[in-house]
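Tutorial, part two.
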Amino acid sequence: MKILVTGAAGKVGQTFLDKLADDSQFFGSRVVALCHHRRIEESDRVKVVVGSLSDPVVVAQAMDGVTHVLHLAAVKESPELVIDVAIKGMFLLLEEARQSPTLKQFILVSGDCAVGHMFKEYRAPITEVSPRKAYSGCYALTKVLEEVMIEQYQIQYDLNGTVLRAPWIMEKDDFKHAMSFGADQFGGPAWEELISAEKAAEYAGGSFAPLMRDVTGAPLKRNFVHVDDLVSALLAALDNPAAQQSLFNISMNEPIDYGVVAKYLARTREMEIANIPTSFHSNWLDNTKARHALGWRPQVDFEEMIERAWSYERNQGDPRKIWYPG
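Running the prediction step on this input gives:
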């Protein structure tokens, strides 16, 4: 097995490489890591190809002799990079894949932005057959287009494609910073767009847990997944006939309820609860298909997510750095 991994230097790529090396099922497998701005170290099992996904020569070199593709590379709200990385890069990979004499499977990691995240309303759990509804911005649009592209290559050329659609991916202390009102907040929403400057300053200066409320006034339910659970789903789908030409939602069994989380933090961390009205929608990304077809089970629930994030201690060699805007 020879696996091409794009985005190998990211949180999912790094975790995947570590877990792959420890999995006896894939003993002897080799990896080609296509890297651009960020690099990883080569080893006996990992070869690095340096270049852009938009360069057909680089993509052809990286795809040579590959049996499986794991496409993780992405850009967020960077319009100047969208066409080259998300569209042209995906097209070049798919073109090489469909013509390859060795290719067995093409796996794409997509995101719940393709189904609107918390910005679009669904009146039932979001399954793999729910309509795609990208929210505003180029990142969500790219995920819709990538899913459609691989879907069409399956129809046009009988490509063996697999799409794993994940919500917001957490690792290390991400979740703690996602709940922060300070300058160290990870991701969104931007609090200043939801509350007054005075309230924002008050919450940042104290110990507050955000209890966002959805458009109905109920505690917001928002989908997350821990990187360890996403990678275990990747390994479950890799070379698995049950994953052939299939899309799977890969998420926690239930969305995180901001009301439950706020009460848990108040009880365990003595934090005060900050009620924040929003226009967001509570959505439920249904993972039933992945649990049934792949035998996959997420292991990290909301309590485990909190405990891991709040107990994580960074060392000097592990600075907190956000690589992509948005």
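The longest strand covers residues 105-111. In part three we will examine how such features are distributed along the chain.
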